Amino acid sequence: MKKRIICTAFIVIAVLVVLFVPFSVRALDDGGTVILNSLSYTIVKWDTFTEQGKPYKSTSVYWFKNKSTSADELWEREQLLMEKSFRATVIELNGNIAIVEPIAGEDEASSANRISISTDKLKSAEVLVGDVVEVVYKGLIRETYPATLDVVSWRLTKNLSHLEYTDTFLDKSSAEVYREGEFSVGDVIITEIYSNCFFAEPVIPMPHTIKFNGKLPDGFCVGDQIEVTHGVSYYNGYDKMETDMISVKSGTFVPDPDMCYKPVIYLYPEKQTQLSVRLSLNGSLSCTYPAYNNGWNVLANPDSTLIDEKGQSYNYLYWEGDVYAEYDMSRGFCVRGEDTAEFLEIALDKLGLTRREANEFIVYWLPLMQNNPYNLISFQGKEYTDNAVLEISQTPDTLIRVFMVWKPLTEHIEIAPQELDAPKRNGFVVVEWGGAKIEN
Asked: What is the CATH architecture assignment of 83-157?
């Protein structure tokens, strides 16, 4: 009896080995794809390029009757499953149906000049006729008229590289020459692309948008961090800089751990008021704008427009520096990188920021956070404010200080959630936001 059991077990193991252990491994001449075959399945470790020339890495398993030993057939199946995208102009909106026209040069434009999209299951993108959108879909384009496809998502895009920018961004006749000669302003994040120029914002926080004249080389996208070498720069002294691009390469700047980046201070007096603001910092300042000369002295308006002693105007007071604080990370939130924007919109609203303030916060921090698998986020209270004390010549009726400490994570962790709230905005309001990336 015992021998029969052993024999049966041996047969079962042998059958399983025959069925499930790969008997052949072969590599394709496409960049690195490897195919493993057994009697019951085929595993393909894709490492190749799509028809659009984009890198594609994925692992797929094809079982029993669905498996195939033909690499061409496997690739055809894989293309039905992979997500693809194209840019298109919205030409009609009828209820939950949108008609879009692929932009010339997109591969989809050769298949259909008009594509019908069902939007009833898509997240609202506040799309209007004439907007340029990025459409993500799976499978093949069905050759009806208009053509149809299975849409995964769509969103407004700032990649307008098919259009020429013709507006006047900066009046050079009244602008100051910020710097002459060839130099780099440091790493920037691309925010908008046109055929003849692109726009970017500095990674090292500075309160202005930069227009780089010249065609951005292929391969760079909105949201990429780059370093640009450029020529003479013109600056309006407020929020705009314009210059001619010379060369571009991928950026490598990483925010220093524990550095307080871009704390900005908004002053909203009930009427135009002369104010002085001082910052007592347990640490050292590394950059301020306008210049911090033992404090800031400004004429503040109810819309937070600030005018310094030279007559220059600003949206807010800006500083960055080292703060010797020990942050409390015992409570907070573990957020998927792809969900960071939505999380911050909700959290900042609860913390009392206006839509404008929250937008400026998100635009700065999101590019550093959205591509991480997860982010651990904690909003600090006394741990921050006791080490960065604000002294204002007129005591505000409402003081809101939002300081986010965060670190990237490779996997989800459990953490006790924070309760987020804010005082009601009333009277003379002062708002500050900032943040720091930590490593430990």
From this structure: Beta Barrel (2.40)
